[in-house]
Amino acid sequence: MRVLSGQLLGAAWLAAVLLAACSPGPGATGSGAAGPDVSPATHDAVFLDRGDCAAGDRVGAYREVVCSDPGARARVVGRLYGLLPASPSPAPPAAARAGDRCPPTTDFLLTVTAARPQGYACMRNLTAPHPGDPGGGGGPRTIAGDCVYTSRKGRVKETPCDGSGPHAPQFRVVELARGRGSCPAGTVLYVGVGGGPAGVGCARRL
């Protein structure tokens, strides 16, 4: 069987959301380039620091809240400081490259631009679903156990392995390896997995 080559450039729910920080305290307001005004609910020196929680609204904007807040949706499991520079096509966008540096089971990524320090927040939902889990169909990382389908020639995208997504899974990543030569027998698709020592996902047809 002919071996294909795929590059996973983005995740199913990779969000590049502008977050606006403002002065703490009752009635505090702020503004950002997109989305409603938001304000930190805690007094941390770092907006959306590791271990902090966030609540989202219907338009995709997020604000920091205490994790016991009924509206808290996700927890920060990784914080990356500084915005990555844009790269010319066909290189992945900055947010996708930042997602490669998140913990493996990160559910989604937030881009922090209107608060200090700028950077990226790797988020994990407080409750299910967890698209970043193996086979979950999303998250900024591609990990062993994930499934993909061919979106166009030379490109694949992640989809839930259980078939619950709009696209049926065609391949499953069975192992991450340093290079194609390290993939196990039966590999029919090589999926780019971004930075780190594991540079390729070895996938088999389902």
UniProtKB/TrEMBL annotation:
Residues 1-28 form the signal peptide. Keywords: Signal. This is Lipoprotein.
